[in-house]
From TrEMBL:
The lineage of its organism: Bacteria, Bacillati, Actinomycetota, Actinomycetes, Micrococcales. The keyword Ribosomal protein does not apply. Belongs to the zinc-containing alcohol dehydrogenase family. One of its GO terms (cellular component) is cytosol. This is Alcohol dehydrogenase catalytic domain-containing protein. Its cofactor is Zn(2+). It comes from Arthrobacter echini.
Length: 365
């Protein structure tokens, strides 16, 4: 059995998504059928549309989603029908050494990046043709079938638009600050790029008590959002950016986060931190984008340059924690949502993103 589902489908080479109807299969053993409540429109989706990353095709796009469990396959025990869940775009296998040692963010058994379920199948078809759910989520669709390990139970009080962002940009930003950088209260931090992930980083920096918090972006609209979320200083990029940051931080920030995924800004990141500081790559560049680093200067000044993917999130631990922080009023995720749109408006949302506009658009189903 299967059900029709209106969805946004990408075919390789196309920069626009087709709004069409796919068929979603019933949940196989160990999988969960979710009726989508909301899906974020994320920069990672845009990378796929712009041909920066190679993927199986055709693909139902969207990887940050939240919704209601509609049906469960045999053997599923973590969630039941009617539960509210956040989808994770990196489902753990729960069996490899990384998973067993609590580091499921470097799981070696997940097939998320192949956009398939653990058995290699896809639950989606379009006119009989196999379609892949992006990162085994495919949240730009009324329905999705995901592995049990990729559907995390959250309290019903969390609205779906907020929950969908917890599933990607919030987890990525919070995790970069808390799990990867380990930012301490009273230390300085600079965030380059104030889009969805950059603003999530700023929100987390504010929560852990970083000070000062310096946001850098070209867009005055985004810098205003950064100030509202706790940035103490906002700067537009310039040739003397490192000197301006050094002046604010007495010699360089303790932490710097790159949230764009641009080679030139990643290369400049170590120049923004003081000796002993940590520079964290959070934004993901296109494939085959080597960066050039002055290794001698990095080593001599004891600086660290680290990569952060999905904030080293352990979804079952971190999503409920982030949902609780939101419900306690300590993580104003709502403020990140600049536009609530329908599925049909998704191409316009990507166009706005390419123009450097909008903090975050969220599709409401
Ligand atoms: Zn995302
Ligand atoms: Zn694993």
């Amino acid at each position: 059995m299967s059900r029709p589902s209106r969805a946004a489908v990408h075919r390789s080479g196309a920069r626009e998504l087709d709004l069409t109807v796919v068929e979603v299969a019933d949940p196989a053993p160990g999988t969960v059928l979710v009726r989508m409540g909301a899906s974020g429109v994320c920069g990672s989706d845009r990378h796929v549309l712009d041909g920066d990353w190679t993927l199986p095709s055709p693909t139902v796009m969207g990887h940050e989603g939240a919704g209601t469990v509609e049906a469960i396959g045999d053997g599923v025990t973590d969630v039941g029908v009617g539960d509210h869940v956040i989808l994770s775009w990196f489902y753990p296998c729960r069996r490899c050494t990384a998973c067993l040692s609590g580091r499921s963010y470097v799981c070696m058994g997940s097939r998320s990046e192949e956009c398939v379920l653990p058995d290699g199948s896809s639950p989606l078809t379009l006119d009989g043709e196999r379609v892949f759910p992006y990162l085994t989520v495919g949240s730009m669709s009324e329905y999705a079938v995901v592995p049990e390990a990729g559907a995390i139970l959250i309290p019903r009080e969390v609205p779906f638009d907020v929950a969908s962002l917890i599933g990607c940009s919030i987890a990525t930003g919070f995790g970069a600050v808390v799990n990867d950088a380990g930012v301490e209260a009273g230390t300085s931090a600079v965030v380059v790029g104030a889009g969805g992930v950059g603003l999530s980083i700023i929100m987390a920096l504010q929560l852990v008590g970083a000070n000062p918090i310096i946001a850098v972006d070209l867009s005055e609209e985004k810098l205003e959002a950064a100030r509202a979320l706790g940035a103490t200083h906002t700067l537009t990029p310039s040739a003397d950016l490192a000197e301006r940051i050094a002046a604010i931080t007495q010699g360089g920030a303790a932490y710097a986060f790159e949230a764009i995924g641009r080679v030139q800004t990643i290369e400049s990141l170590p120049s923004l931190i003081a000796g002993g500081g940590k520079a964290v790559i959070v934004g993901l560049p296109p494939e085959d984008s080597p960066v050039s680093i002055d290794a001698l200067a990095l080593a001599e000044s004891g600086k660290s340059l680290i990569g952060s993917n999905y904030g080293s999130t352990v979804p079952g631990r971190d999503f409920p924690r982030l949902a609780a922080l939101y419900l306690a009023g300590r993580l104003p995720v709502d403020q990140l949502i600049s536009h609530r749109i329908g599925l049909d408006d998704v191409n316009e949302a990507f166009a706005a993103m390419r123009r450097g506009e909008r903090a975050r658009s969220v599709i409401i189903f």
